[in-house]
Amino acid sequence: MLGDDEASVIGRIAMRAHAGESDPIHAGTTICAGLVAVPPAMLFSPDGETAIAAVVAGYETVIRIGEALGSSRLLGMGWWPTAVLGAAGAAAATARARGLNALDTRNAIALALVQSGGLGTGAPQAPESRNLVAANCVRTGVEAAEAAAGGIAGPPEPLTGDRGFLSAFGLESSPEKLLEALGDDWKIAATSLKSFPCALQAQSALAALSDLVSRHQLTAEDVVTIEIGLPAAMRRIVDRPGAPETRFGAAASLQFLAAACLLDGDVLPARMQDDRRGTPEMRAAMDKVRVVHAAELDAALPAAWPARVRITATGGEFSVECRVPPGHPEAPLAMTVTVDRFRVFSAGQIDDTAQDRMVDAVSGLSDLTDMTTISAPLRALF
User: CATH number, domain at 86?
Assistant: First the structure.
């Protein structure tokens, strides 16, 4: 991961995207599909039309395999689904971007699958380890495509063959989902973009809290308590009342994130930096936040990611429930919001001029003849 080869560079870009908690996720499979598909598509594609096809190839591959496996169940077994399946998506995106033929593309995906792995163990306590795993699975996929292009073959039936991928984890699989409605049901349309740079499990709560604070013009001084009710599976990930020791820990602490939203009216990456996480005002705001189990919301998962927020303030009590967060397929973000989020999330890493050029390039991606406007600022990060 420390080398200067293309696979290492793309792995580090993926690591940066995941570390910033800005990567899209497919809720049904719990796979960060954008993390594995977008970096190789942006850096290897010769033009925008190819880049679009490569992104779609990566999304379709990793999500369809995830649906066939039932990858969300891996979490309870200690595996991180993105790490287990991500290399296959990165391999597919790389293969399409580089123009590999059908046989070499099959071999690329097969070679990626035989190297699959990646535990979810310890992610809340050591989130930096998760970022390294993210980088490694993308790098593995890129290297698998490079190997296939060089003539190395993978197993001919990597998914459903003898001791194939779909049987390796002891789960009952649904191989028919691999090709079900292929070309009609686009999985990329079922992924969620994040409105806030943090864990998906916190998004609905933050949207609800932001709505209440804005609608009732509440300040931190007005608020006495904030109670956030979540399904048990969501609460388990983001109920972290202690002061976060790292910015990665902050992105997974709903107490911290709610306090930031109350103080700033948004969740900004700058608030997660070392010199701002533990300020007296932040500690005081965090003390007002309580995250509880709302059992009546459990059944909504995974179709929805609900949260109920109740604020007790000096002027009364206010509550609202958010079924799906902004950016969910049922509540897509407007392009203007997506552009704003890109600028906020990349501030301090990509300068304003490069941001402007990247926005223009992506807005006209299908007609873009040179990907340098997008790829050069990404490479310059390292």
Answer: 1.10.4100.10
Out of 141, 172, 193, pick the residue that ends a domain. 193
Gap between the Cα atoms of 250 and 265, Å rounded? 17
**Using a CB cutoff of 8 Å and minimum separation of 24, what contacts does 209-213 make?**
209/258, 209/261, 209/262, 209/309, 209/311, 210/261, 210/265, 210/266, 211/320, 211/322, 212/309, 212/311, 212/318, 212/319, 212/320, 213/261, 213/262, 213/265, 213/311
Closest to 142 (Cα-Cα) out of 85, 95, 188: 95
The answer as to whether 281 is a domain residue is yes
20 — pLDDT class (breaks 50, 70, 90) = confident
pTM for this prediction: 0.90
% of the chain at pLDDT higher than 90:
73
Query: For 2-12, how does the pLDDT look when each residue is reduced to its tens digit (9 = 90+)?
Result: 456 887 888 88
Structure confidence by residue, pLDDT tens digits, 189-213:
999 999 999 988 999 999 999 999 9
> How many domains is the chain partitioned into structurally?
2
Does residue 122 surpass a pLDDT of 80? no
Which residue reads 């009732």 in tokens?
A: 216
Is the pLDDT reported for residue 127 higher than 70?
no
Do residues 219 and 315 lie in contact, with contact meaning Cβ atoms separated by under 8 Å?
Answer: no
284 lies in which domain range?
200-322
CA 259-253-248 angle, 5° bins: 115
pLDDT score of 264: 93
| β 223-230/316-322 pair status | unpaired
* pLDDT, the chain, mean: 92
